[in-house]
Amino acid sequence: MLILLRHGRTGANAGGLLQGRIDPELDQLGVQQAAAAAAVIGKVDRVIASPLVRAQQTADALGQPVETDERFIELDYGDWEARPVKDLPAETWATWRSDLDFRPPGGETLNELGERVRAGLVDLAADAVLNNIVVVSHVSPIKASVAWALGASDQMTWRLFLGQASICRIATTLDSARLIEFNVTSHLEGLAG
Fold it and tell me: Most CB contacts within 10 A, which of 26, 83, 139, 173?
């Protein structure tokens, strides 16, 4: 089973900023979210995380050795890093949503992100048939993972919502993948935020 865990909240999340490759730590709520997710997930066979601090801190909450895999790093927003989401004009969002090859200035396209994430998932799929593998990542790579499991275009990722410290599960066989759970956040109930 592939268990996809989005990192806990950061100050940039709370501030509504695009935080692709900027590297803030989890805030106090994010630390609580990571601990709550770890308690629900329990012991697994492998833990893999994006190299960014927020993903590494979330992975560390699982209390097991963490492997780092660059393929699960967040989308590169280029010149838009640390910008408020609300500052991007509506026409920019419309263009971005309609074109998987749209590139933020100095950044990465959704097609490029999808290709690297799918390569990472293909490398893990056979091992995940018999083992539970947690991948701690970010909103865009996890949405691309869901598209991969469903055999769908990365275009669908614009129609998905993924909460902080949410859990998705993808079952793999030797020749396919199936989405079992998406955006599970019940473990976060009662956390102050």
Answer: 26
Catalytic residue among 74, 81, 108, 187: 74
Query: What is the spatial distance between Cα 148 and Cα 32, in angstroms, rounded to a whole number?
Result: 30
Residue 189 bears catalytic tag:
no
Both structure tokens of 6: 């989005």
- What are the tens digits of pLDDT across the range 139-188? 999 999 999 999 999 999 999 999 999 999 999 998 899 999 999 999 99
- Which three-class secondary structure string do you get for the chain? CEEEEECCCEHHHHCCECCCCCCCCECHHHHHHHHHHHHHHCCCCEEEECCCHHHHHHHHCCCCCCEECHHHCCCCCHHHCCCEHHHCCHHHHHHHHHCCCCCCCCCCCHHHHHHHHHHHHHHHHCHHHHCCEEEEECHHHHHHHHHHHHCCCHHHHHHCCCCCCCEEEEEECCCCEEEEEEEECHHHCCCCC
pLDDT in tens, 56-96: 999 999 999 999 999 999 999 999 999 998 999 999 999 99
User: Which residues have CB under 8 Å from 151's CB, separation 6+?
Assistant: none
Active site (annotated) includes residue 108: no
Predicted local confidence at residue 80, as pLDDT? 94
Decide: pTM greater than 0.85: yes
